[in-house]
């Protein structure tokens, strides 16, 4: 398989606007769950940059559990992200949910995000592969590691080598946290595959008090980076408020994960 270490022993490095993911060191991606307004995303982008982040995240097309919840600003949200990139130089990552929208989203973003709910949407994976853009592939809520790597295979098989995996927690019987961040998956995937692996402690735990400790744990387990949800006033975030951290907590997290990486 193209994703396997047998096929390619050396680590894959994905480059976005001069930043190298998987080349050693910790890549930090951060931003709001949803792009809310131009003012908000520019404010967050400046904080991400100032506090040591490398990539700005923000959802414009949102996979909400309820059809009555805010679904995102769509293309307008992508324009706001692009403006924030213009002002800070940070590359941007945003989710695409439909095969027919891959070309549109790819016009704006530096990295296409495939969400957990779409990990096995094979037509979407194929389109993302064809786009030639780097793809951040989140693990499905109930996907085995084997299924996750096979999903990556769909993208790689289109001739697109730039796949970044993201462990974001899986469904278990535990209800104290939103999901269970599967730290096992990080060293397991690093041994099976050459692809870079990020950890998403925000969706992995779902509660803001536990995001920073699990970010540290993910990096200690060998993750190539962390993706987290941040907001100037987390309680006012339009989606995923409970797991969103403020700038101060984010700054602390960046310092700590960098210290963990240096100790390895
Ligand atoms: C997100 O990143 O906001 C998101 C919806 O993530 P996931 O697909 O992992 O649930
Ligand atoms: Mn979210």
UniProtKB/TrEMBL annotation:
| Species for this entry | Alicyclobacillus acidocaldarius subsp. acidocaldarius (strain ATCC 27009 / DSM 446 / BCRC 14685 / JCM 5260 / KCTC 1825 / NBRC 15652 / NCIMB 11725 / NRRL B-14509 / 104-IA)
Is Membrane there in the keyword field? no
Keyword set includes Chaperone: no
Protein name, as recorded: Phospho-2-dehydro-3-deoxyheptonate aldolase
Domain named DAHP synthetase I/KDSA: which ranges?
A: 18-259
Return the broad EC class.
transferase
Choose any GO biological process term that the UniProt entry carries and state it. Answer: aromatic amino acid family biosynthetic process
Complete-protein stretch covered: 65 to 328 of 343
Q: Keyword set for this entry?
A: Transferase
Q: Name one GO molecular function term.
A: aldehyde-lyase activity
Which Enzyme Commission number(s) are listed?
2.5.1.54
């Amino acid at each position: 398989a193209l994703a396997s270490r047998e096929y390619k022993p050396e680590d894959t490095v994905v480059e976005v606007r001069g930043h190298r993911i998987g080349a050693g060191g910790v890549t930090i991606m951060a931003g709001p769950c949803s792009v809310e307004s131009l003012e908000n995303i520019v404010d967050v982008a400046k904080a991400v940059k100032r506090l040591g982040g490398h990539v700005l995240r923000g959802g414009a097309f949102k996979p909400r559990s309820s059809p009555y919840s805010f679904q995102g600003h769509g293309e307008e949200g992508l324009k706001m992200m692009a403006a924030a990139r213009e002002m800070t130089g940070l590359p941007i990552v945003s989710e695409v949910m439909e095969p027919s929208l891959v070309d549109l989203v790819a016009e704006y973003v530096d990295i296409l995000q495939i969400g957990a709910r779409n990990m096995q949407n094979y037509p979407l994976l194929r389109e993302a592969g064809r786009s030639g853009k780097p793809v951040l592939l989140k693990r499905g809520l109930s996907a085995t590691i084997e299924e996750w790597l096979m999903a990556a295979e769909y993208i790689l098989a289109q001739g697109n080598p730039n796949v970044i995996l993201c462990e974001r927690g899986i469904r278990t019987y535990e209800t104290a946290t939103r999901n269970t961040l599967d730290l096992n998956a990080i060293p397991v995937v690093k041994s099976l595959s050459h692809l870079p692996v990020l950890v998403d402690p925000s969706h992995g735990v779902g509660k803001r008090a536990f995001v920073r400790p699990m970010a540290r744990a993910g990096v200690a387990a060998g993750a190539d980076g962390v993706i987290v949800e941040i907001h100037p006033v987390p309680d006012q975030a339009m989606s995923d408020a409970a797991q969103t951290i403020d700038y101060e907590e984010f700054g602390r997290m960046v310092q700590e994960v960098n210290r963990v990486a240096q100790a390895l």
